[in-house]
């Protein structure tokens, strides 16, 4: 199921509901760029924590329900959530007219400092430079953060650069990455004009 959200007086608003079912995962995402309730359930506690932080600092409303093949591992769940959230965000942005488009954010967490720089260009690309000192964070495989970011970028039409400048704790590094993504997304999707922010006239 896919659906744009409409207000009878003002027409479509920047929100989207998307469902995706495969043999590995079943995901429903209800995303609103103008904020709202945040409820996340993926079956992976730390990933829930990261997505909640992303939505909170992104100023997003997010209801996310996920059933995945966690008896295998968390890879399919994490990657497929990135796919669905990326697609929902792209559809919620519509033609992208008036958005700021570019943004960046430095976020510290204790000893770790991370940077996110992004562009809603409709030219998806990921540069991810963040080594994880510990392989696991609870039941969450630390290497899956890069998989999520790649799926999110490719499906939202986002040029995304992420870097951990320094850090010794994988939990702190990962959380700083998700928070910096949220802060940058919030700024980049803000409506600051009326036309498309591009010398080509289209994104």
Give a written overview of the molecule.
The chain is an alpha+beta fold and 203 residues long. It contains four helices and eleven strands; from the N terminus they run ββββαβαβββββαβα. The chain has helices at 45-57, 75-93, 144-156, 170-188, and strands at residues 2-7, 11-21, 25-32, 38-41, 61-68, 102-109, 112-119, 125-129, 136-137, 140-141, 159-166. The strands form three sheets. The chain has a five-stranded mixed β-sheet, with helices on one face. The chain has a four-stranded mixed β-sheet with strand order 6-7-11-8. α1 links the parallel β4 (38-41) and β5 (61-68). α1 (45-57) packs parallel to α4 (170-188) and α2 packs parallel to α3 (144-156). The longest helix is centred in the middle third of the chain and has 19 residues, at 75-93. The radius of gyration is 16 Å and the shape is globular. The protein starts with a strand and ends in a 15-residue tail after the last helix.
Q: What oligomeric assembly is this protein in?
A: single chain
Annotation field: number of helices: 4
Ends apart, CA distance between termini: 26 Å
The helix-and-strand class reads: alpha+beta
Q: What percent of residues are in strands?
A: 25-35%
Largest sheet: 5 strands, mixed
**Low-pLDDT residue intervals, each spanning 5 or more residues:** none
Rounded Rg: 16 Å
Topology pattern, helix = H, strand = E: EEEEHEHEEEEEHEH
Could you tell me the number of beta strands?
Answer: 11
Mean pLDDT: 94
- Order of strands in the sheet with most strands: 1-2-3-5-4
Shape category: globular
Helix share, percent: 25-40%
């Amino acid at each position: 199921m896919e659906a744009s959200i409409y207000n009878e007086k003002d027409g479509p608003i920047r929100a989207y509901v998307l469902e995706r079912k495969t043999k590995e995962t079943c995901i429903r995402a209800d995303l609103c760029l103008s904020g709202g309730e945040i409820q996340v359930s993926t079956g992976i506690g730390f990933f829930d924590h990261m997505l909640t932080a992303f939505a909170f600092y992104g100023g997003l409303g997010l209801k996310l329900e996920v059933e995945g093949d966690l008896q295998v591992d968390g890879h399919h769940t994490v990657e497929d959530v990135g796919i669905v959230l990326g697609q929902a965000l792209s559809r919620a942005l519509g033609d992208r007219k008036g958005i700021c488009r570019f943004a960046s954010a430095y976020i510290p967490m204790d000893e770790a400092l991370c940077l996110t720089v992004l562009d809603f260009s409709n030219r998806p690309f990921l540069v991810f430079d963040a080594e994880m000192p510990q392989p696991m964070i609870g039941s969450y495989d630390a290497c899956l953060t890069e998989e999520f970011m790649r799926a999110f970028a490719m499906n939202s039409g986002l040029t995304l650069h992420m870097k951990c400048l320094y850090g010794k704790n994988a939990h702190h590094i990962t959380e700083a990455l998700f928070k910096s993504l949220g802060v940058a997304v919030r700024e980049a999707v803000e409506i600051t004009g009326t036309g498309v922010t591009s010398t080509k006239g289209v994104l």
